[in-house]
């Protein structure tokens, strides 16, 4: 059973917006563009006194643009609409836009995509979107049908029909069903794609919502089943039960047929927490444990056992604060630690990154730590991506130098044993689903030039058997993938992947797109993107992905090296990669673009202000850009463990001021073209970050485009067509600024 901290990661997660989503096949050439309207005059006029005064006020700490923080404010929306009209007029007038849009949409809506599944009650479940089902279908099938080559799907819920019937722009956010029958489920639906979502009880037998059943208004939170008539709930519906990050800190026991207001409080965290979430951890034999996760910071959590069906006194589990439960394998709780840990005074110290296990039943019975067993201790260039349990095997993805490997662990009289399953070379591997009632498991492997292949793990967990392969969506002839390293300012070697045609890049520097993230211990592993390949590589571009510090590519230490006041290391890492690309002749500064989303949007914003001379175009998607107020907007307070506590720590405040893109724009500096993208419905990273940067750079007469999708949440798109639009806008912008004029 997989025990990823889903609630916590949904709550605070810094979502990576891929520069590329899984994509399609195109052999049509992209035509030469007609002249597009200029976004500014060829010679930028010096900013007027009013613009300079605005910039000076912002730099001095004055909160001049608070009106842009009113998400649905009339003036703020008018500003966004005017910018949208200008930006869309500029980009969509380019004939390449429509070709790029059509090409991306063909990939995104293709029925040749792999229908990834999860195992539930012996059935395979899938959520599917395509051209005819823009909101999506929740459906199921049998293993026999899935492997037959002609899968017969049983549609359980048509979300398009529901959206039309109820007049809502429903976006699927998942389901939680009560084991072992799985007849009752809590469905999570968001109107427009925001994190705040409604939760409604679904009856699998009648295929309808339960009349008078469990239903929770739109909120950030979560639920967990106790039994068919009782839920654990955590909601942010009441201000006095909501943290400064916008998440709940109270867990309640809600009985069917009673008002939600009468739900019984079973655990209370603190308003200063990031949030508190309930969970049900279930063993294969049906034994289950009710838990509350109290996230004190984004990376530090306390776990509480709620005994006697959540009616007893909560018992604190004596685990380290930086810990991630991974799986229940039999009675063994498998977990990884992100800090060195000495459970007993004078006893053994386990290093950060170690994967350990203990008896869950003993821990629950006594509240004291039982014997700790070592499963795996990663090396310097290794990291653990995740564990999942089947009935007889514990599967693990362990990355070595950013390339994935699949391992099988078993436990016997002599402790834990492991062996590796052969996987395709130079790919990343992920566990798609695993069934703890059998030995059924599926894994996926993919590489930059290798389309996703879904494999079924053999019952004895010794081999992978191909199940489905996604078609190749772009021409790879002449393309190669290389892993190189750049030397950062402090001497650290920073790996990066470059996907290019060496005959072309060896002959002359060319248009290059650099992508990075660098935060929250999120790893960027090799992945196949049909849209990036079609829209960028096929049109002569080079793509580079940097594995900079702040990520999890080499375990917790790689992440922690860039926390708070050490964050400049992350930016130096990306600068080092960019400089290496120029020095090696891959590209030139005016042909080098950089793109990133969310925390990666902050990364590219810093590139814009710190090294405007190094880039020819900058794309910042759903970004954080006002680092003096990030902690006051929406979920921002939950990220202070990553960025710093500006109201509590003067050194961290001073550092944040030094890197905050909004506060470091020089009115007399020349900057590369900037494209800012956000969403009105993003209730994770406030759209005001991008709005403020757009307002300031526009006032200063800088070359800037801004697009605010009125739907879409933190993904900046509520459906596949909106995603195709975003991709087409981005790659049109990149082509205009990095490719046009190449032959002049």
Distance between the termini: 59 Å
Specify the biggest β-sheet: 8 strands, mixed
Shape: globular
In the CATH hierarchy, what is the class of one domain? Alpha Beta
Can you tell me the CATH architecture of one domain?
Answer: 3-Layer(aba) Sandwich
Which spans have pLDDT < 50 for at least 5 consecutive residues? 1-41
CATH superfamily of one domain: Alpha/Beta hydrolase fold, catalytic domain
**Would you report the number of β strands?**
37
User: What is the subunit organization of this protein?
Assistant: single chain
**Into which percent range does the helicity of residues fall?**
10-25%
Q: What count of helical segments does DSSP give? A: 17
How much of the polypeptide forms β-strand, as a percent range? 25-35%
Task: Going across the biggest sheet, name each strand in turn.
Answer: 30-31-33-32-34-35-36-37
For the CA atoms, what is the radius of gyration? 25 Å
Instruction: Determine the mean pLDDT.
Output: 91
